[in-house]
Specification:
The chain is of the alpha+beta class. It contains one helix and two strands.
């Protein structure tokens, strides 16, 4: 996994890249029985929701340094 941070105006863009999924066998438990493209779509949706939740918490002042 590679995580990069990029300044975009007065915000920061965070990019998360997962690599190597093509080396994981289709029957591996991590793929939850989904075919390759559907698995990748579901994984991207999970990340989108996770990062959206983090953004909401930070926007609300939760998790901010004290």
């Amino acid at each position: 996994m590679t995580v990069t941070f990029e300044a975009v105006e007065d915000e920061t863009r965070v990019t998360v890249e997962h690599r190597g999924w093509d080396t994981v066998p289709a029957t591996h438990v991590d793929k939850h029985g989904f075919p390759g493209p559907l698995f990748l779509q579901r994984h991207a949706e999970w990340w989108r929701a996770l990062l959206g939740s983090l953004k909401s918490k930070l926007d609300a002042g939760e998790g901010a340094p004290r």
